[in-house]
Amino acid sequence: MKKNTKVQDEELEDFLEKDKRSSKKKNKKIDIFFKILSAIFAVITILFYISVIRLNLIPNAVLLIFTVILVGITIPLILGMAKRNTALILNIICLLLVVAISSTYIMGMKYIGATMNFLKSAFTEIKETEEYYIVVKKESQYQQISDLENIDIYSALIEETTLNEIKENINKPIIESEELLGIGNKLVNQEIESILISASQYDMLDDEVDGFKDNTRIIYTTSKNIETNIEQNPESKYTVDNGTFNIYISGIDTEGNINKVSRSDANMLLTINTNTKEVLMTSIPRDYYVMLHSKKAMDKLTHSGIYGINETVNTVEDLLETDINYYLRVNFTTLVKLVDKLEGIDVYSDYDFTTKEGYHFKKGYNHLNGKQALAFSRERRSFEAGDNQRVVDQQMVIEAIMKKISQDKNIMSEYTDILESLEGCFQTNIEQDKVSSLIKEQLQDLDKWNVSSYSLTGTDSNNTTYSMGNQKSYVMVPNQNSVEQAKTKIKTIMEK
């Protein structure tokens, strides 16, 4: 009996020893598990912090506080998981917090990455290209250049070297014309078999000749890089560094590649004074009849974009007698993509009207998708006020977009998709480090900004333009009183 008891005791001791070894082994695995998680959390935290630093948009004082808070959260959580002399329940609580915070950091890195990619695409070297088309009548039997006998061309606006290259490439007789509208009408009326024009001129003809694009087709395309000379006035006191400056916003009449030169269809000057927290938005009608800076000839402001963004900026500088050192260039793709990503916007219309694209808008609020918003922004022929009303409608669209962004509770969940869709749709000559410095400066001082707007006005007329030749087309003759008021308003804000 005693022997049996001894055997039982030995077996029990054996079992307890095995259980103790198993328990130690289990605890060691748990230790390793929590230490690995601690290391992963530390790496995620470091990567998140580095991404915040690289974004370079947080003021130094705020960054210091952010750093202290980050360290204050990270170290206790890592110690709470890594130290096994604490209760297991504490390890589990720390684990849950780490999972939640790590998810937030990863999402934050996703937002930061999208922001950095977007900014990188906007702050790129300026390269502008122009495309040239050979256009024939839609029902024409011509399918390629070899089918043609000769080609009519409005050569007045094509640089000589470019024209020579095109002539060499197509190897066909060229008949030069002095009127763009003339050869456009002749093609539609089948008086000539083909024309060679730039992509910008193609769009211009569609505005002036009813159904031009619908009744023609392109059988040949070539492109040419255009030298741009985007210069800032080195003696100007109106710079981001000084806190008072102008930014010219040019909405170009094209879709797709932002590098394509095109008409400047939407024109707005932002006058910003960061010292007094004031912004003035000055809108200029696209068909304003102005003196082109380099050509020294009268034309519509919209046509200045054909010769590059620098021509538009310099022309507006002359008109408003102010220094414009910065610009932001956007195309139609930008508006369409942004509005669609916002799942539409609600825009107020002053009138009941139908656009040439067939979109109908009622007086009052209309819910618009991207293409509808673009058509709404471009329409002028439906209004007695013409271009003046178009400027008002463009401002309505901008206000609707800003309202949707500020009120949309789901905007953060769509943030990365929105930025990714807009990459390559913006172009600016403002240095990225200057923008970063400006944002950081404003985040330090969150005073309310005073935003005002003003629109230049004019009267409808018909006149010859440099870009169209001798034939008259619609223009808006500037109201000199409105121009002088704009100069005064701009000067007042910039010299405070």
Tell me what the structure shows.
The protein has 496 residues and is of the alpha+beta class. The protein has three domains: 2-119; 128-226, D-Maltodextrin-Binding Protein, domain 2, CATH 3.40.190.10; 244-342 and 408-494, Aminopeptidase. The protein is built from 13 helices and 19 strands. It has helices spanning 2-55, 60-82, 88-122, 160-170, 180-188, 199-208, 309-320, 332-341, 370-378, 387-407, 411-422, 432-444, 480-494, and strands spanning 128-137, 151-154, 174-177, 194-198, 216-226, 244-252, 264-273, 278-284, 289-291, 298-300, 326-331, 345-349, 353-354, 360-361, 364-368, 426-428, 450-455, 458-465, 469-478. The strands form six sheets. The chain has a six-stranded mixed β-sheet, with helices on both faces. The protein has a five-stranded mixed β-sheet with strand order 3-2-4-1-5, with helices on both faces. It is elongated and about 120 Å long. The termini are far apart. The model has no long low-confidence stretch (mean pLDDT 83).
What's this, in brief?
With 496 residues, the protein is α+β, with helices and mostly antiparallel strands. The chain is built from 13 helices and 19 strands. The chain starts with a helix and ends with a helix.
User: For this structure, what is the CATH homologous superfamily of the largest domain?
Assistant: LCP protein
Q: Under the CATH scheme, which architecture of the largest domain would be assigned?
A: 3-Layer(aba) Sandwich
Distance N terminus to C terminus? 108 Å
Number of domains: 3
Q: So how many helices?
A: 13
Q: Radius of gyration, rounded?
A: 32 Å
Helicity, as a percent range: 40-55%
- Which structural class best describes the helix and strand composition? alpha+beta
- Residue runs with pLDDT of under 50 for 5 or more positions: none
CATH fold-level label of the largest domain: Aminopeptidase
Query: What is the tally of beta strands?
Result: 19
Order of strands side by side in the largest beta sheet? 16-11-6-7-8-17
Overall geometry comes to elongated
- β-strand percent reads 15-25%
Could you describe the largest sheet, including whether it forms a barrel? 6 strands, mixed
